[in-house]
Design goal:
β1 and β2 form a beta hairpin. This protein is about 75% helix and about 5% strand. α3 packs antiparallel against α10 and α4 packs antiparallel against α9. Strands 4-3-5 form a three-stranded mixed β-sheet. Strands 1-2 form a two-stranded antiparallel sheet. The chain starts with 5 loop residues before the first helix and ends with a helix. With about 325 residues, the protein is mostly helical.
Length: about 325
Amino acid sequence: MKSISQETAEKYNIRKIETSDTNLTVVTDFFLLGFQGRQLFRNVLFLLFLLVFVATICVNLLIIILVSTSKNLQTPMYFFISQLSISDIILSTNIVPNLLYILLNNGGTVSFIGCMNQLFFFLTPDGFEALLLAVMSYDRYVAICNPLRYATIMTNRFCINLITMCWLLDTFISFTVTITSSKLNFCGSNFIDHVFCDLVPLLELSCSNTFIVHLEVYVMGSPIIIIPTAIIVVSYTYIVISVLRIPSSTGRQKAFSTCSSHLIVVSIFYWTIFSVYVFPNSRQTRVTDKILSLLYTVFTPFINPVIYSLRNKDIKEAVQKVFHKHVM
């Protein structure tokens, strides 16, 4: 990890507390390094991330409003898309504002409590998206493989129950991991070579045994990755088999088009998650980790609604109706 001078630590008022019984220095603040470099480089990144952040909030809010007000979008698929937008807004507002501050100041301090809060509000929407993508794949499976039973299976009550279970399960797991992480001792370096308070760099800084946290992640966190991945694979296996049985090429193309947007979002999400957390490359540098982290914390919340809106006829029509109603 890049070393920082004592002068820099004092500049940002990084506090440590001496403990008399163990002669250890307990960290009460962390210093996020972000992207260290020339001011011009950081200013360019600042403008880029600011534009992406504003666009992310606006586009996701638009999706939520359209789904809530348009009768043509009152279907399970669009309900799930609106939930994805809510998750993306939470993730983006948790990461980007602090990232912008770090870029302007060439790093910045965050309190211990603030770091734990950021960790919780990072884990929660990230885990929820994994569960939600599995729910959306099941929705596409029912729509294509059992179209005659779709209305009786994907009822409003069933969809709401699914989403509620996803939020509750993920919140419980994220809260448990965050609370356990907050009870670790951080008595060495307090410089986090990352763009936000992520779990992996935090555990690397801890001077206490992190076995319990790792155990919680594998026992409770692994199902959030493994089970949704299995559901997605199985669902799309049946979807592909059903679509290939359609006699007309036009019918096959129409069926695949209803899944293409979801598959793109799934590919982007799981590629970045697996690259950083599940199967990290041994040659992967800190800079690479930061860039990959930015993909799913900054750019993915913007890309998700763009993919669904640009490739979706119903959402385009809803936007046009709203535009003509309020502007023309």
